[in-house]
Specification:
The protein is built from 14 helices and 16 strands. It is of the alpha/beta class. It has a seven-stranded parallel β-sheet with strand order 10-9-11-8-7-12-13, with helices on both faces. It has a four-stranded parallel β-sheet with strand order 5-4-3-6, sandwiched between helices. The protein has a three-stranded antiparallel β-sheet with strand order 1-2-16, with no helix packed on it. The protein is globular and about 75 Å long.
C-alpha cells in the first residue's frame, strides 16, 4: 500500500477507536501484549536480519539500540500492560461551568484522532507508541527508519493480531512501507489525514518536520543534557550521577552530554571524574569515555581539547564535553546558550543554590541530585512515552496519555435559546 492508502485506511478506523469504551481498549492492549510475546520468535528473526544489514553501517552503540532480545520483548509487552492499567484519559471532565442561563459546560478530554510518528532505529518505540495511541483512543501511523524496518513490521503484525482479537480494526496501528524521505514528506503534508505529527529522532529529522510540516507537529528535542557539579556537591554522589547519566545507555536522548564543574572543586573533582569514566572503565574491560575538555578543565586533567561544536553536540556515544565555570549562575547561563531544553541537572547540597538554578534553567526537566536518565515516560509514571517534547505549547517533557488528548466543550441544557 502507498503512504496515502495507509493514511486513508487509518482515517477510516478513527471512529472505531474514538467510540470504543475504555474496557474494550484495555482488552485490546492486553491482547496486543500477549501477541508480542507469542510472536517473539518471528520478531527476533526479523531483528536478526536488521542487525546483519546494519553492521558496519552504524556504530556499536546504535546497534545496541536496534537489537532485541527475549528480555527486551518481554519488557515491551510489560510496558503495554502497564499502559492498560493506567486511568482512562478519554472522557475526563477537565472543567465544569454552570451558567446563569441554566446551561452546563463541560470541558472534556477527547482523542486527537490520527497520530503519526516518524522515528528511527529503536524497535521498542513501535509498541510504546501503539500502546499509548490505543489507550487514548487514537489511531497510530508509524514511520520507522530503514535499519529497523523488518523488526517494526514484525512487531506491528503482532500488535494488529491482538487488536483484531479484541474486535478493533487492524488499521488502528499501521506501518508506512516506504522508508525514504518521500514518505516523511507525505506525512508532513497530510492535511486532513493526520491530526498530530510527532518526530522522534535526530536533530535533522526534527528540524525538517518543524520547518516543513503543514499538519500540527510536536517538537521533540535532541538531548544536549547537562550535569552541573556545584562547589557544595557531594562529590561521590556527583560521580555516581554522571556515571549513570553518561554510560548506562549513551545512545538515548536523556543521556548526559556535558559536565560543568564549579572552579572551587575542579582540581579535586576532575581527577576523580577521569578515574571513574576513563581509567576504572578501561581496567574493568568497559569502553572508556572520551573527555573533551575546555581550556580550564584541560589544565587539570588529560583529555581531548574541546572543539567549537562539542558543547552543542548530542554525541549519543561514549563522549563527554567537560567545562569549568565560576558559579551556579554561570552554569545556568552556559546551559541557556547550549542546552536543547531537554534535561539538565545540578548536584549540590545547598538548597538555595538549587532553587536559583532550577528557576534559571528553562528546560522540560530540571533535576536536583538525580540522573538525567529519569526523563522517561515509564519513570515518570506515564507507562511509556510517545516522545520527549522540548516545546512549550500543548505538551512539554515526556508525552503520555494526557498529551495525546485534546478537548471539546460539551454543553447541556433543557431547551435554552440565545
Amino acid at each position: 500500500m502507498t503512504t496515502m492508502d495507509i493514511l486513508r485506511a487509518a482515517r477510516g478506523a478513527r471512529s472505531a477507536l474514538r467510540g470504543a469504551e475504555g474496557e474494550r481498549r484495555n482488552a485490546a492492549l492486553l491482547a496486543m501484549a500477549d501477541s508480542l510475546w507469542a510472536q517473539r520468535a518471528a520478531i527476533l528473526s526479523a531483528n536478526a536480519l536488521d542487525l546483519e544489514a546494519a553492521r558496519g553501517q552504524i556504530s556499536e552503540v546504535m546497534l545496541d539500540r536496534l537489537a532485541l532480545t527475549e528480555e527486551r520483548i518481554a519488557a515491551m509487552a510489560e510496558g503495554v500492560r502497564q499502559v492498560a492499567a493506567l486511568p482512562d484519559p478519554v472522557g475526563r471532565v477537565l472543567r465544569t461551568v454552570e451558567r446563569p442561563s441554566g446551561i452546563t459546560i463541560r470541558k472534556t478530554a477527547v482523542p486527537m484522532g490520527v497520530v503519526a510518528i516518524i522515528y528511527e532505529s529503536r524497535p521498542n518505540v513501535t509498541s510504546d507508541a501503539a500502546a499509548l495511541a490505543v489507550k487514548s483512543g487514537n489511531v497510530c501511523v508509524l514511520r520507522g527508519g530503514k535499519e529497523a524496518f523488518r523488526s517494526a513490521g514484525a512487531i506491528v503484525e503482532a500488535l494488529r493480531e491482538g487488536l483484531e482479537g479484541a474486535g478493533l480494526p487492524r488499521e488502528a496501528v499501521s506501518l508506512i512501507q516506504d522508508t525514504t524521505r518521500q514518505s516523511a514528506r507525505e506525512l508532513m503534508e497530510a492535511v486532513g489525514l493526520v491530526d498530530l505529527l510527532i518526530p522522534r529522532g535526530g536533530a535533522g529529522l526534527i528540524r525538517a518536520c518543524v520547518e516543513n510540516a503543514r499538519v500540527p507537529c510536536i517538537q521533540t528535542g535532541t538531548g544536549v543534557c547537562h550535569v552541573y557539579v556545584d562547589r557544595d556537591a557531594d562529590l561521590d554522589m556527583a560521580l555516581n550521577i554522571i556515571d549513570n547519566a553518561k554510560t548506562s545507555r549513551p545512545s538515548v536522548c536523556n543521556a548526559e552530554e556535558v559536565c560543568l564543574v564549579h572552579r572551587d572543586i575542579a582540581e579535586a573533582f576532575l581527577p576523580m571524574l577521569r578515574a571513574r569514566l576513563v581509567t576504572d572503565r578501561a581496567a574493568a574491560g568497559l569502553q572508556s569515555v572520551e573527555l573533551r575538555l575546555d581550556s580550564r578543565a584541560g589544565a587539570v586533567i588529560e583529555g581531548v581539547p574541546a572543539g567549537e561544536a562539542d558543547f552543542d553536540t548530542e554525541f549519543l556515544d561514549y563522549i563527554l564535553a567537560v567545562g569549568v565555570v565560576d558559579s551556579a549562575q554561570a552554569a545556568a547561563d552556559h546551559i541557556a546558550a547550549h542546552s536543547t531544553g531537554h534535561s539538565d541537572c545540578i548536584v549540590t547540597a545547598d538548597a538555595e543554590t538549587a532553587r536559583r538554578f532550577i528557576a534559571a534553567v528553562d528546560s522540560a526537566a530540571v533535576y536536583w541530585n538525580v540522573s538525567t536518565r529519569f526523563t522517561d515516560g515509564g519513570e515518570f509514571g506515564l507507562g511509556c512515552e510517545m516522545g520527549i517534547s522540548t516545546q512549550k505549547l500543548h505538551a512539554r517533557g515526556p508525552m503520555g496519555l494526557e498529551e495525546l488528548c485534546t478537548y471539546q466543550y460539551v454543553i447541556t441544557g433543557d431547551g435554552q435559546v440565545r
